[in-house]
Amino acid sequence: MMKLKKSYLLFIFLLFAGSLSAQNSAQALLKKTLNKMSSYKNFKSDLSYSMDNDANDIHEKKTGTIYVEGDKFRIELMGQIIISDGKNMWTIIKDSKEVMLSALDPNDPSNISPTKILEEYSDYNAKFEKGQRKGILKTLVLTSKKKKATFHKVTITIDSHKYLVKKFSLYDNDGNVFTYDIFNFKANVDFPKGTFTYDPKEFPGCELEDMR
Description:
Blueprint lengths: L5 H33 L4 E11 L4 E12 L2 E6 L2 E5 L3 E6 L4 E6 L12 H6 L3 E4 L8 E7 L7 E9 L4 E9 L4 E11 L19 E4 L2
Parallel strand pairs: 6-12
Antiparallel strand pairs: 1-2, 1-11, 2-3, 3-4, 4-5, 5-6, 7-8, 8-9, 9-10, 10-11
């Protein structure tokens, strides 16, 4: 680039400066959204979850509801409930009446509260997806600065007026893409007592397997 004629240097510089501006704007939007989401006491939302791997022709989709309060969360999907008190996680499979108890791994980005998603990837390189800088909904592409990361890329679609996450996708190194669509979002909800704890009485007949 330095070998180009001087008449082109200003043009190249302006393009590069524009790229830096776009990155900074994307990072600023990400930070504002993180601050907004973190300001809520809790939230509840309907969601659509999908896992796709084109190479292996795997396409799975589930819908459900998620409840989040700090590090605690509860996810109710079709035939499955996941409950976490921030330290442990119970996975209840209704059809087979099985409950698997595991410790929450703070170093595993796939096993943390959804409120930590933005924090976990806030230090990624962020830029707007091509053609996504205009309009209310903006999609950010986040790429990892680490050589070995669980997810090498993350895309987040944000309502730039409300600073609300509408959709995010996680891309791992095995070709899997995990996508979450979020809708009917409600913040600062009065959750029933016990929402984030496992109560055997709520799931009679289920056998608990402790995998900690």
